[in-house]
Specification:
The structure holds two protein chains of two kinds. Chain A is α/β, with parallel strands linked by helices. Chain A is built from eight helices and 18 strands. Chain B is of the alpha/beta class. In chain B, the strands form three sheets. Chain B has a nine-stranded mixed β-sheet, sandwiched between helices. In chain B, strands 2-5 form a two-stranded antiparallel sheet. Chain B is globular. The chains are: A alpha/beta, B alpha/beta. The interface between A and B is large, with 97 and 89 residues.
Chain lengths: 321, 257
């Protein structure tokens, strides 16, 4: 078992950025180990050429209605089939909702080792070892993977994406066994147009206890809109029913690592910081200069968020236009 | 119907977690309060409310050291009928895929209609359990569920996924991992906390499950603290001036806009 396999994800006719990032890691492994890398494309198979050009020697595709929407049973069967085709020893995928679900079931199907939400790969270690956050990022764990194959999901926004090469991959259509499908997707409910999820956004504007109530999120949303950012929230705001749970950032919410995190009226409790402490830049707006977030932020504004945030928005509109 | 709930003990979310210098794969446990994994509370609550309407038994299963009994007691105090604990080091100190395989063996003889677990273990930060158990039991699973309705032979679940969601219908038996939107966990009353101590906690070994020790497929070599964030610039004063400073910093220094 020597091969490398990337399981691709597409969104609305494009290759998802986490797949490009997984391809980047796969190419690095492929170069150092002198083994070829293959990719599996389950949806929008017209993208096979574009995917192959990221450096893959082979792109496996599948056809059929049962691959139209993510389904853990049919996708696991197809991924296991592809893994056997290329004798995969390392399988990589983005740690998206689908990626985390599929890699989990696949790891059990292949009786392999699983490492999820990985932020670093020690490319030269043999067998490959990885680094992943634990305790919601309060600590980092270096993890050895003696089991085989190794199924690894990569945290979005961390790995360098592969750039297109002139290479042309061989496209091979697979015909995996029909899995018995017992859990069926009845309906996909998309997020409202223009509403970004905190796990996918490059910028997050977040509100905490300091926003004071559901209406207080108005200024947060206004600023987020100008920056094309997602709206986040602290546990205090969610537990007060000011905003739905899907916005919660922290140890019992979502763990995020955007380019910019703007924390408004958030004190920065340990469990919240655990969820956003790996953001590249942090801006904090808080009345209390002694709030824990204030000495962890790259730029801390001491002041009333209801006065500061609207001005911030106006100033940003000026500069962005 | 019989419902199984998977339980795990974890450090409290507010705990400061530090690596143990004498045992770098582990953490210092002094001063750390341990609790039932917060997401497991949603699983327990959901199991209890389903059992209340359909009738049947709720059985908790926990892999953990002897000290994890306090997390099991929390679940029993909430209303879980009985529990099993697997304390073998070969089960406690192994990876999530192997744990899922062990749990699958422990679940099998109970022949449950539904297995519930929390969406994620907040200590190892892993959310693979439902899928792994389901695979070893050859059953369907639905992960990260925020809404669930269970009938006699099927379930309908809403799975949260990257901003949107999927409505999924599955046959039973099935494994579901539970998220916070699902319910509001009940607080155990004093009398129930007392009664929990009289409920059965059965100790189960790997050999009881006809499983031999298996070396872990993955193992933590060393834990370390991430680089601490340094304090940056702090500005105060008129909102107009501070906001303008921030925008200037974003464009000139952070170079984001």
């Amino acid at each position: 078992m020597t091969g490398i396999l990337v399981i691709a994800e597409t969104r609305n006719g494009t290759i998802h950025k986490t797949t490009r990032e997984a391809a980047g890691a796969a190419m690095e492994l492929s170069r150092r180990r002198s083994v070829p890398a293959a990719a599996l494309l389950l949806t929008e198979t017209q993208l096979a050429g574009e995917l192959g050009a990221l450096g893959f020697s082979t792109v496996y595709t599948v056809e059929g209605e049962r691959y139209g929407k993510y389904n853990s049973e049919s996708y696991t069967a197809a991924a296991a089939h592809a893994a056997r085709q290329c004798s995969a020893n390392i399988i990589l995928m983005g740690a998206t909702g689908m990626g985390r679900d599929l890699t989990a079931r696949l790891a059990a199907r292949l009786n392999g080792a699983l490492a999820s939400d990985v932020i670093r790969i020690h490319y030269d270690s043999d067998p490959v070892s990885v680094v992943r956050p634990v305790y919601s990022g309060k600590l980092l764990a270096e993890v050895e993977l003696p089991g085989s194959p190794r199924i690894i999901s990569l945290r979005p926004n961390v790995f360098e994406p592969a750039s297109p090469s002139g290479q042309q991959a061989q496209v091979v259509r697979l015909d995996p066994d029909t899995a018995s499908i017992r859990a069926q997707v009845k309906q996909a409910i998309q997020a409202a147009q223009g509403v970004l999820d905190v796990t996918e956004a490059d910028i997050i504007v977040s509100g905490g206890r300091g926003v004071g109530g559901p209406e207080g999120f108005g200024v947060i949303r206004d600023l987020a809109q100008v920056l094309n950012a997602a709206v986040g929230a602290s546990r205090a705001a969610v537990d007060s029913d000011w905003i739905p749970y899907k916005h919660q950032v922290g140890q019992t919410g979502k763990v995020v690592s955007p380019v910019l995190y703007i924390a408004c009226g958030i004190s920065g409790a340990i469990q919240h910081f655990a969820g956003m402490g790996s953001s590249r830049f942090i801006i904090a707006v808080n009345k209390d200069p002694d709030a824990p977030i204030m000495n962890k932020a790259d730029f801390a504004i001491v002041g009333d968020l209801f006065k500061v945030v609207p001005v911030l928005k106006e100033e940003l509109i000026k500069i962005l236009n | 119907m019989t419902i199984v709930v998977i339980l795990k003990q974890v450090p409290d979310t507010e705990a400061v977690v530090r690596p143990d210098p004498s045992r770098p794969q582990g953490i210092l446990t002094e001063d750390v309060k341990f609790i039932l994994n917060p997401y497991d509370e949603f699983a327990v609550e959901e199991a209890l409310s389903i059992a209340e309407s359909t009738g049947g038994e709720v059985v908790g299963i926990c892999i953990g050291p002897a000290e994890a009994e306090s997390a099991v007691l929390t679940a029993l105090a909430m209303g879980v009928d009985r529990a099993m604990m697997i304390t073998d080091p070969g089960a406690v100190e192994t990876d999530i895929v192997t744990k899922g395989r062990i749990l699958a063996e422990a679940i099998k003889p109970l022949n449950p209609s539904l297995v519930l677990c929390g969406r994620e273990w907040i200590d190892t930060q892993e959310d693979a359990l439902a899928a792994v158990i389901a695979e070893y039991l050859d059953l369907p699973h639905v992960g990260n569920v925020g809404k669930l309705s269970v009938e006699s032979s099927k379930l309908t679940a809403v799975r949260e996924m990257d901003g949107g969601s999927l409505e999924i219908e599955s046959t039973l038996p099935a494994i579901v991992s539970c998220s916070k939107d699902l319910n509001e966990p009940r607080y155990p009353t004093l009398i129930k906390i007392k009664r929990a101590k009289t409920k059965e906690i059965k100790s189960v070994t790997l050999s009881d499950l006809n499983l031999a020790f298996e070396p872990p497929r993955s193992r933590v070599k060393i834990l370390s603290s991430p680089p601490a964030r340094q304090a940056g610039r702090v500005v105060k004063g008129e909102p107009d001036a501070t906001a303008r400073d921030a925008v200037a910093w974003l464009s000139d220094e952070a170079k984001i806009i």
